[in-house]
Amino acid sequence: MRAWNELTTSGRLGRAGFWLRHLVGLPIGLFLCIAADSLVGPSAGLVAAALTTLFLVSVWGRRLHDRGRSAWWLLLTAVPVAGALLLIVDCAFLGTRAGGQRYGVPGGVRIDYRTV
Q1: For residue 28, what are the contacts with CB-CB under 8 A and spacing of at least 6?
Q2: How buried is 113 (Cβ within 10 angstroms: 0-12 exposed, 13-18 middle, 19+ buried)?
Q3: Rounded CA gap, 31 and 67, in Å?
Q4: CA separation for the pair 94, 73 (Å, rounded)
Q5: How many Cα atoms sit within 13 Å of 86 on the Cβ side?
Q6: End-to-end alpha carbon distance in the chain
Q7: Which of 62-66, 83-87, 92-96, 106-110 has the lowest mean pLDDT?
Q8: Each residue of 16-72: pLDDT tens digit?
Q9: Using alpha carbons only, how large is the chain's radius of gyration in Å?
Q10: What's the whole-model pTM score?
């Protein structure tokens, strides 16, 4: 069920995972959007675009959690240029916040049934 975790905003995501998903996952998603639209039709392209958008919201939301912020900060993209630039700087270039443990398991800790 690992693939399902790529479409949820729960949990955390470090800077390396954030960049990896943008350098590998995003081009694949965009290719699938174009291919589905060209080969099957606009309705398939719309479904692929919706899944790619859900993937991006998940990646950015989990990275914001790692930074100690809520995924609601994604609404900053409604502010034309400044909001998007603020999110890019905050998520892509700044490290993990030490005190930001409100969202998910702290970085580097694995929780399973054997943990006491």
Answers
A1: none
A2: exposed
A3: 30
A4: 15
A5: 12
A6: 25
A7: 106-110
A8: 777 888 888 888 888 988 998 888 888 888 988 888 888 888 888 888 877 788 778
A9: 16
A10: 0.67
